[in-house]
Amino acid sequence: MVKAWGNNNQGQTRIYEAAAGKVHEAVAAAGNYSFLLRDDDMLISWGGGDWFEPGIPRYHYRQPDSNDFVAIAAGTDHIMALTFDGKVFDWDWPLGDFPFDYFSRPVPPDVVFIEDIDAGYDFSLALKAP
Q1: Residue 66, SS3?
Q2: Cβ partners under 8 Å of residue 21, min gap 6
Q3: 18 by DSSP, 3-state: which?
Q4: pTM here?
Q5: Is residue 28 a contact partner of residue 47, using CB atoms and an 8 Å limit?
Q6: Which of 4, 25, 52, 119 can bridge 13 by disulfide, Cβ–Cβ 3.0-4.6 Å?
Q7: Is residue 106 packed enough to be buried (19+ CB in 10 Å), middle (13-18) or exposed (0-12)?
Q8: What is the total count of domains within the chain?
Q9: Burial profile 34-54: b = 16 or more Cβ within 10 angstroms, e = fewer
Q10: For residues 61 and 107, what is the distance between their CA atoms, to the nearest angstrom?
Q11: What CA–CA distance (Å, rounded) separates 100 from 66?
Q12: Is residue 102, in this structure, part of any structural domain at all?
């Protein structure tokens, strides 16, 4: 079960209705955004003032595919996901009615077989074991 509290001036603590009855594996937050990973590998983000009408949140989804996500990270300007086999995905925070992949950020080609990720203000970190 996902719970959020505190300042909700940009919708960042308003949990999406479809969360009920779902299993979530990870949550992350940064700035005015919230981000979660469901157990079916769906990625969902919300908040950040992406509101076209007051009080009506915009939720952004990345549908499950062949990637088996195991971790997520949230930075002030972007979000990241890590797959079971160590592949890193990086996106700008999604806006409007566009899917995550519309906002893809380049990941250097030598960033493979990664074990952990984190996101900063406008940069990414990846840990690769020796």
Answers
A1: coil
A2: none
A3: helix
A4: 0.85
A5: no
A6: 4
A7: exposed
A8: 1
A9: bbbbbeebbbbbbbbebeeee
A10: 20
A11: 16
A12: yes
Most confident of 22-26, 55-59, 62-66, 97-101: 22-26
Residue-wise pLDDT tens digits, 70-98: 999 999 888 999 999 999 999 988 776 67
Q: Which residue has the tokens 């949140």?
A: 57
Which is higher by pLDDT, 22 or 111? 111
Instruction: Report the alpha-carbon distance of residue 47 to residue 93 in Å, rounded.
Output: 10
Query: Which of the pair, 105 or 17, is modelled with greater confidence?
Result: 105
Task: Give the torsion sign (CA, 116, 98, 3, 8).
Answer: positive
Does residue 12 form part of some domain? no
Domain residues for 93?
17-127
Q: In 3D, which of 48, 42, 40 has the Cα closest to residue 13?
A: 48
- Give the position of tokens 């996101």: 119
At 23, which amino acid appears? V
Quote the tokens at residue 114.
């990664």
